[in-house]
Amino acid sequence: FVAANGENSIAVAGGANLKLTPALIRKAAPAIRSASTVLMQLETPLESIQAAAKIAAKAGVRVILNPAPAQKLPADLLRLIDVLTP
């Protein structure tokens, strides 16, 4: 969206993003382990982000996190991130 003054506005409709559970992440573990990079953002549940980051890091897969929308992140998650794109 673009406001009348030209500034952009961001709107999020959770929809499918909020349905991404750690259980679904575990089912996708083979795909995560075979990737060269996993790119994530925080419009999905934090528990799912952590599950994917753990699988990827253990497999030596590069983990990139766009920390938006901004929120406090646990240190154990931050240790798993290779690239943070604030």
How far is the first residue's CA from the last residue's CA? 21 Å
Please report the total strand number as a whole number: 3
Discrete helix count: 4
Question: Which strand order do you get reading across the main beta sheet?
Answer: 1-2-3
- Which residues sit in consecutive blocks of at least 5 with pLDDT less than 50? none
- As a whole number of angstroms, the C-alpha radius of gyration is 14 Å
Which band does the percent of strand residues land in?
5-15%
Q: Sheet bearing the most strands, described?
A: 3 strands, parallel
Secondary-structure class: alpha/beta
Helix content: 25-40%
Query: What sort of overall outline do the alpha carbons produce when their principal axes are compared?
Result: globular
Mean pLDDT across all amino acids: 93
Oligomer: single chain
Order of helices and strands: HHEHEHE
Tell me about this structure.
There is one protein chain. This protein has 86 residues and is α/β, with parallel strands linked by helices. It is built from four helices and three strands, in the order ααβαβαβ. It has helices at 22-27, 29-34, 46-58, 75-78, and strands spanning 37-41, 62-66, 83-84. Strands 1-2-3 form a three-stranded parallel β-sheet, with helices on one face. The chain is globular, with a radius of gyration of 14 Å. The protein starts with 21 loop residues before the first helix and ends with a strand. The mean pLDDT is 93.
Summed up:
The chain is α/β, with parallel strands linked by helices. Helices cover 34% and strands 14% of the residues. The protein has helices at residues 22-27, 29-34, 46-58, 75-78, and strands at residues 37-41, 62-66, 83-84.
